[in-house]
Amino acid sequence: MTTLQTQLHWEDVKEGDTIPGYTLDLTWTKMVEQVSGSQDFYEVHHDPDFAREAGHEEIFYNTGFTQAALCRLLTDWMGKDGWIQNFSFQMRRMNIPEDHVQVKGVVTGTQVREDGKGAVTVDLWLENDRIGITTPAEATVLLPLRES
Amino acid sequence: MSDQVDESYDIEVIKAEWIGKKTEKTTGRYPVEYDPIRRHCHMVEDTNPLFLDPDAGKNSQYGAVIAPPVMAGYFAGSGPWPQKAKTDALANVPTRGERKINMNIDWEYLIPIKIGDQLSSQRELIDIFEKPIKLDSKAVWLVTETRITNQNDDVVAIGRNTLLTHRTPEQVSADL
User: Fold this and answer.
1) Which of A35, A36, A98, A133 would you call most buried, defined as having the most Cβ atoms within 10 angstroms of its Cβ?
2) DSSP code per residue over A64-82
3) B-side interface with A, Cβ within 8 Å?
4) What ipTM score was computed for the predicted complex, to two decimals?
């Protein structure tokens, strides 16, 4: 078990900062973990014949997996006292078996709101070596203020 | 969803009949549990102690293990087994094809989800429209809003989902 990371504060963050990313290799074992973790048994995510019959190149990783990967980027970064307030993403292109997926993000704005909370807006995404960005996303994260 | 495949498919009629319809509020099959969170974290190699370590959760500001917020929908549902008949009010929104892909997902998270919470959800059809895609020139898109609440009826999360439905290449060729 890892320990809780050093807490990130709103004052530590500025527009343009890169969020530390991570990678996931979409092996066939990872495909099984996807089905187990999401409990999404729709065949288009695990049955190549079904996916191709529907007109797709290959099975593709599901929404549950994708949002989990994006969410992890934020929760790893923001620390135990951060809070994801808003989170949206678009399943524009597909991540398929054998893809090497990178999960990345960048800070797009910071603001102390009227309610005194430190808000940070973030662009984040999944990209793979085959076709680039597949899943653009945006989030607003609340971070503790150092002075509070 | 049903595959209404005849030429009488009229999106304006369907909009008038279906937009604003809501499902019954339903409660998740089980309370929020450790093991689904562990499996969720496993698939993306997440080792966050707030999600996985009861001691860390107990000593955190939450006082218990919490679930990643994106699991709100999971715990408000009944899971894939034992299967439940899809009899809710939005189970049979007419579409042209039965193949489907989630496209845009937008969530607002209001309060944490803790071990032992019992979540419920209610969905409403916000919009339905036709918009062509490469696979299907007559693809039909559905937008739904889901409100997830806990055992105290506090709103945990509000989500908006855009679902693309399309026909198979064979159905498109035959213009079914």
Assistant:
1) A35
2) HHHHHHHHHHHHHHH-TT-
3) 36, 39-53, 56, 60-61, 68-70, 74, 79-80, 99, 101-109, 135, 168-169
4) 0.95
